[in-house]
Known about the structure:
Strand order of the largest sheet: 5-4-3-2-1-6
Number of domains: 4
Order of helices and strands: HHHHHHHHHHHHHEEEEEHE
Number of helices: 14
Oligomer: single chain
Helix content: 55-70%
Structural class: alpha+beta
Distance between the termini: 131 Å
Amino acid sequence: MTIKKKLKSVLLFLGICLGIYVIFMLYYLFGDGCWNCSPQDYYARGIAMISENDNNNLKKGVKYLKTAAKKGNINAIIFLGELYSDDFPDAYITDNKEKIAALRSIVSANIKERESYFNELIKNQSFFDIKYSKMQYNLGMLYKAGILKSEEKEEAHKNWLIISADNGNPLATYQMGIYFNNKGKYIEAMKWFTKAFDSTQEPASAIMIGDYYFYGKGVARNYQKSIEWYQQALSAPASPDTSLWINNREELTQWANQRITIAEKKVRSKISKQVVIVKYRITGGVNSFSIFTLDPKENLIGNVKKQNSYIQARSNIMIKSVSISKSAKVNSMSKGLHWVLTTYAKNKYGADKDFNFVITK
Length: 361
């Protein structure tokens, strides 16, 4: 072969290569190509495309996100799980609402697809990383709302909250407090609320702790301490994600201020009230007894008796106020005793007093 023919062959080969390269670049730039892309590259490119108000780019964007999800990209899996969801619980936190709204014209909610992507998320070991703590919390909320199905719904809800809380998410920590609060386990709930507030000064947790001191749940009733916690809720820094109860900081401020006002009235009332000691004795048995006072002489003031299906407490004094009843049905003998003593004391000394009832022999 002559040099001229060899040169011609080389040029032809180079021309073919150049043509292939140009075609590839055009495909890469304007088509669906992505040369040597990582899962994160596919995700980033998909998000960029769905941010453009163009149906063709929206479709390509979804295609890239699905490719990223197939390659194990956690953010793509989360996005697609949310994309195919038709609703979210009030406490669910997502940054994708606007993007999902833009895609609703071409992608409809699909329960089967939603469950597929969220199940894929749960199976991915990388998802347990600390950087996904917000979505771990979201899974807990999805199980709680019944959007994600499980035979052990409550356990799944609790487990994902614990995973998220252990990864430092204050919302999950707060919700663990709510979980135990709803079960009446106030001491355990208070530990979680305290942890949530200590980690990021989560204001709703401060209000819950304040309420515990105000009502005496799990701790001794202490109005002054409740005020201190309500004030901490007011001084906590405003954050768009921290409070689960509300979306409006102004509303939180209103709640805390209302509680402070009520608690301060309680403090002033407790300081100003006169304490009256009322001595009494009882005679009778377990199912029926009479109550006598010793101020200054012994007087029968009432009796408590267990009937067939209820317990009757009856006062034996002259009632001054029409608002005070002569008898009451109560749940226990001890409540009947307290009702008789309180009725007597308020009638004799006034309802503006505090009473200390002391039993004598």
